[in-house]
Write a structure and sequence with these properties.
mainly beta; four-stranded antiparallel β-sheet; elongated
Length: 185
């Protein structure tokens, strides 16, 4: 069990048992019986919390530390390893589906931008955007020697922006199509 998991379990047990908040600086919560030694104390400083194991077999051993320095949360297990998600792990910021418009798009023009609310989206995030079914029989998205529509996407704060662009020599009235989207970080 990592420090973060142990700390969250300890917090949940304290809140459930006493109806309080275990992160209160006045708390001297009882042993949570986690792992071979458990957690029996939390020590606080200005921006740091140490999780202490005061079991007789391992008195006053540091189980781990959670701290906040220079706008960065740090969580360290007793062996020095991090208890925050490892590189390669992601969280989903938002996901869903969105229909695109079916009004005619003139040659060399773009349809009105479709906006999708995605709370927490940053302008630096990457958007995954795919058709929710085959586009191969949908007008405007069928491969053709005269060209087909192009879908552009970009993030702004809390918003996914999608625009359909016509790079062909003539106007196209696209068929109905729906996109699935997902933003992960």
């Amino acid at each position: 069990m990592t420090l973060l998991e142990a700390l969250l379990l300890h917090h949940a047990r304290w809140c459930c048992a006493f109806g309080g908040n275990s992160f209160n600086q006045n708390n001297t919560a009882g042993k949570a019986n986690l792992g071979p030694h458990g957690i029996s104390g939390l020590q606080f400083t200005t921006n740091q919390m140490d999780v202490i194991d005061t079991a007789v077999s391992k008195p006053s051993a540091l189980f781990g530390r959670v701290s906040y320095h220079a706008n960065s949360l740090q969580c360290t297990n007793s062996d020095g390893s991090t208890c925050l998600p490892r590189t390669g792990t992601t969280i989903t910021v938002c996901s869903g589906s969105q229909s695109l418009g079916t009004n005619a798009i003139a040659s060399g023009a773009a349809a009105s931008t479709v906006t999708i609310t995605c709370t927490g989206l940053l302008a630096t995030d990457n958007i995954m955007l795919d058709f929710n079914g085959s586009p191969l029989a949908v007008t405007g998205y069928v491969p053709s020697s005269s060209g087909m529509l192009t879908i552009l996407k970009w993030p702004t704060a809390n918003t996914i922006n999608v625009s359909v662009v016509n790079n062909t020599a003539s106007s196209i009235t696209p068929g109905a199509i729906t996109l699935n989207y997902r933003v992960v970080r």
